[in-house]
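ok so I'm stuck.
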Amino acid sequence: MINPLLKEVVFMRRSIGFIEFKSIAKGIEATDFMLKSGDVKLIFAAPICPGKYISIVSGNVGAVENSLVVGRKAGGIFTIESYLIPNANEKIFPALSGTYYPEKSQSIGIIETMSAIASIIMGDAAVKAANIELIEIRLARGLGGKGFVIMTGDISAVKSAIKTCEDMFIDKGEIVSAAVIPSPSKELIKTLY
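replied:
not stuck anymore, here's the structure
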């Protein structure tokens, strides 16, 4: 079930942009410039490990693209990377906030990524590739800069989603590891939701 507070974001603003900075101060400043640059909504902005800052905005493609240009310019030499998903799947929004709780979990899939931005890109790719549900997209907080995606669905769909991500990203060095857990224990599921 989708958190009612996210409905505006999910249905009105399908484009998502994210930018990572190697300075918390510059990240906060650049985020302010990004939000003032046009009609974008802040999805997430916070310090992440190790001493970086990430900002995620949503809106129509042009507004988000402009916001990223403004953010990169404001961040200057402190900008690490940015990325735009022009037609983000609606399932990534509740996963980013950890507010999706599936009724059942036939299997669990996990993709561990080298960066926060990679976890968002892979979450979107996974949900577009197979009939899965995203439980969480974790963005580097307490992870030494890494990220991870947790998904659920029937075993073949979860395997397909993970294989798609591996095929797309393994050569880029963005995937640390991935796992599929068929019929996860109830105790494990409680720790994930």
